[in-house]
Amino acid sequence: MAVVRPDFSLTTPRPAEAPLSHRLATRINEYARLARFDRPVGTWLLLWPALWALWIAGAGRPTPRVLIVFVLGVVVMRAAGCVINDFADRDIDPHVRRTRDRPLAARRVSPTEALVLFAALLVAALVLVTRLNLLTVKLACIGAALTVSYPFIKRYFPLPQLYLGLSFGGFSVLMAFAAQRGELARVAWVLYIAAVLWAVIYDTIYAMIDREDDLKIGVKSSAILFADMDKFLIGAMQAMMLYALVLVGHDMHFGRWYEGGVIAAGVLFLWQQWLIRKREPAGCLRAFLNNQYVGLAIFAGILLQYVYAS
After folding, report:
1. How would CATH label the architecture of 30-141+158-308?
2. 50-72 tens-digit pLDDT
3. How far is CA 250 from the centre of its chain?
4. 79, 37 in Cβ contact below 8 A?
5. What Rg, from alpha-carbon coordinates, does the chain have?
6. How many CA atoms lie within 13 A of 72 on its CB side?
7. What angle do CA 153, 154, 159 make, to 5 degrees?
8. Quick one: which H or E segment has residue 92?
9. So what's the pLDDT on residue 240?
């Protein structure tokens, strides 16, 4: 007698597909991680120089519309910079311990999706900057071009942290003065130099975390270029930045409130030197993160100067 065997292919249910809302939430989460919205420290590091400049250029009373545009613009452009950076490094990041889980490196987001997100962020930034004067728009176009080129220039330029500072780290200072005053005064350039130096400082400390991996895969960084002189050169740049801030205070006839902010920043720099003394990744990461308080200290000095000395 023939044996009839059950056809399990017809009776076994297929795995249930995740609801559309869940899939959509997952994609949004990956895009947010790609744009680093989950790591706001980088946004603060870019926002503080803009706030320094807005308060100084606006004599302690920045125009509300300009302030809103700059805050939103920094958030959007920082996100755009992170997306295009990860797009350029999508085949490098999987080989670096710190970056291998990024959405593009882990192949959870496609290069096409990243480019679409980048374009959307650029359009948003363009809409924001068109609310400002023509000089600011021109500077924004230059800054955007420099920012977009950074991920590709850093493959060939031995000091990519300097290029980052010139383009991404400090360009908002010049734009802030252009938006508030319609011109670039001497103090704007001195403050720009301070912001550039600061970006080189904190990004060199950040690059110290990845030095071993970067050496293996041939990535260039100031941490590699400086070699065993890294701590000394970081300290030299910290002193130069503080001196530039002193010059800003002298030019603006600032008093003790501002000087207190600069002194607080100097104390934080000394703490960072202690943290990186052994060049351990954990200590370098703490020193990098500590820079958000450097920016806060300087801004607090500027703010209090206008509040209590005016």
Report:
1. Orthogonal Bundle (1.10)
2. 999 999 999 999 999 999 999 99
3. 28
4. yes
5. 23
6. 16
7. 115
8. none
9. 98
* H-type alpha helices, the chain: 8-11, 20-34, 41-57, 64-88, 111-129, 134-153, 160-164, 171-181, 186-209, 211-217, 222-226, 230-252, 256-275, 281-308
Q: How many CB atoms lie within 10 A of CB 265?
A: 23
pLDDT score recorded for residue 238: 97
pLDDT at position 8: 42
Tokens 């420290």 sit at which residue? Answer: 41
Query: What's the CA gap between 241 and 137, in Å, rounded?
Result: 28
Do the Cβ atoms of 65 and 128 come closer than 8 Å? no
Q: CB of 178 within 8 A of CB of 136?
A: yes
Low-confidence ranges of the chain (pLDDT < 50): 1-3, 6, 8-12
* Phi/psi at 210 (5° precision): -100, 10
